[in-house]
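Key result, reporting period 2: structure in, sequence out.
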């Protein structure tokens, strides 16, 4: 293995084409690319050469660098590690918070047929008429933001009796082994520390919880 700073330098050379053949690399150009001093860039090139990660030759118009087989092997190992991090299919996100009371609007909207039928069809949930509201702990807010990169289910807006109902998006999750889904209305700016969930169960009853109780929401990618 090579030092992290040297690996960053190796990556920069690879992006210039150093895996395919010799590329022109000066200490000044590498320094500018990595936002370091030319002296530091020169030391990293020497370090990579001493570790047999690159080979360097001098030409009439400057220095040429090629990534060796050992250098490519180190980069492939790093690439494989990142794939394990980002491409695993059983990654779990845990959101911690406490149960709070909503404004009572959820019961009405969940019962509207245009929403209820989509929850059943798209999420496999025939929802209990009401929502389960959770105020996230400060440490879970950043985890909540990561969920935005996941594939959410779109709940379409519709018109019923001359009234327009906006769309929403939903993400399947679970609490205490019970299937549920996070629902975010499309028309409102939701506080990032509050999440609203639907489930086929009245979660307060099956979980035996009341306001202030600690809950953990699990989302599996």
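The corresponding designed sequence is given below.
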């Amino acid at each position: 293995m090579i030092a992290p700073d040297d690996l960053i330098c190796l990556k920069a050379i690879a992006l210039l084409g150093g895996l395919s053949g010799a590329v022109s690399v000066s200490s000044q150009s590498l320094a500018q690319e990595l936002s370091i001093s030319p002296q530091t860039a020169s030391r990293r090139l020497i370090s990579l050469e001493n570790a047999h990660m690159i080979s360097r030759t001098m030409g009439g118009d400057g220095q040429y660098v090629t990534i060796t087989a050992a250098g490519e092997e180190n980069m492939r190992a790093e690439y494989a590690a990142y794939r394990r991090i980002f491409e695993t299919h059983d990654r779990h996100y845990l959101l911690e918070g406490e149960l709070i009371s909503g404004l009572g609007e959820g019961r009405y909207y969940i019962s509207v047929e245009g929403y209820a039928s989509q929850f059943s069809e798209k999420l496999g949930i025939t929802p209990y008429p009401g929502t389960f509201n959770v105020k996230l702990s400060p440490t879970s807010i950043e985890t909540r933001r990561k969920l935005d990169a996941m594939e959410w289910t779109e709940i379409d807006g519709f018109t019923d009796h001359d009234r327009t109902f906006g769309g929403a998006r939903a993400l399947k999750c679970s609490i205490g082994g019970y299937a549920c889904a996070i629902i975010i209305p499309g028309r409102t700016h939701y506080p990032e520390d509050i999440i609203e969930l639907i489930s086929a169960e009245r979660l307060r009853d099956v979980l035996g919880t009341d306001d202030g109780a600690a809950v953990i929401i699990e989302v599996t990618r």
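The mean pLDDT is 91. The two ends are 31 Å apart (CA to CA). This case is discussed further under Risks and Mitigation.
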